[in-house]
Amino acid sequence: MTAVRTPYPEAAKALLKDTLFGAARDLVQQRAWSEITMSDIAQAAGVSRQTLYKEFGSRDEFAQALVIHEGERFLDAVDAAVREHFDDPRAAVGAALGTFLRTAGEDPLVRILLGDDGGAGLLPFVTTQGMPVVQWATARLTATIEDGWPEAPPAKVRLLAETLVRLAISHVTAPGESPEDTAKRTGELLGPFIDEALGA
């Protein structure tokens, strides 16, 4: 069987984005986002500023894309956690939230996000300007839940997914208990709805 190859333009674009995001991540770990310009990112990535603007349009659009790109790693881990518990909806939800909080809590960029003043940093792209992130994460989690429970009502699945995403963001930006305790308490609170929505 012949492997399907990614068309060169598509592969080149993906490589460019990965390079730009990697450069930005390195810069953010050295100084505040408010001090980083598009020129800085382009220079660190080894491309022209025009190339960067052509790809993202504006600094805010790039910041939003960076946050989502970094979030992909967390959602990959969440997806795997849910799939390991397709036989137990409550356990799946607990594993999903616990995995996200634990993974995010260990990430250097997340610690930097939480350390900014919420003004000119990256934090607003997760909170006050975070709707694109919420929508993206909700869509991903909805698809994962639908894979495991295809007969569940779509509206309830989406409501559950969005609630979990918003709770996860809230607990990451204002952490309290341990990820395990937070996941356990959330599972207890949402348990009846989870049973109803996913048909346990």
Protein model, in words:
The protein is mostly helical and 200 residues long. It folds into two domains: 8-57, Orthogonal Bundle (Arc Repressor Mutant, subunit A), CATH 1.10.10.60; 59-198, Tetracycline Repressor, domain 2 (Orthogonal Bundle). Helix content is 72%, strand content 0%. It contains nine helices and no strands. The longest helix is centred in the middle third of the chain and has 25 residues, at 59-83. The mean pLDDT is 85.
Key features of this structure:
200 residues; Arc Repressor Mutant, subunit A; Tetracycline Repressor, domain 2
Would you kindly provide a brief summary of this structure?
This protein has 9 helices and no strands. By secondary structure, the chain is mainly alpha-helical.
Q: Strands, helices and their partners?
A:
Layout (H helix, E strand, L loop, with lengths): L7 H21 L9 H8 L3 H8 L2 H25 L5 H17 L2 H8 L15 H18 L5 H20 L5 H20 L2
From the 3D coordinates, which CATH architecture of the largest domain would you assign?
A: Orthogonal Bundle
Helices, by number, come to 9
Structure class: mainly alpha
Q: Please give the largest β-sheet.
A: none
Instruction: Give the SSE order as H and E letters.
Output: HHHHHHHHH
Number of strands: 0
* Integer tally of domains: 2
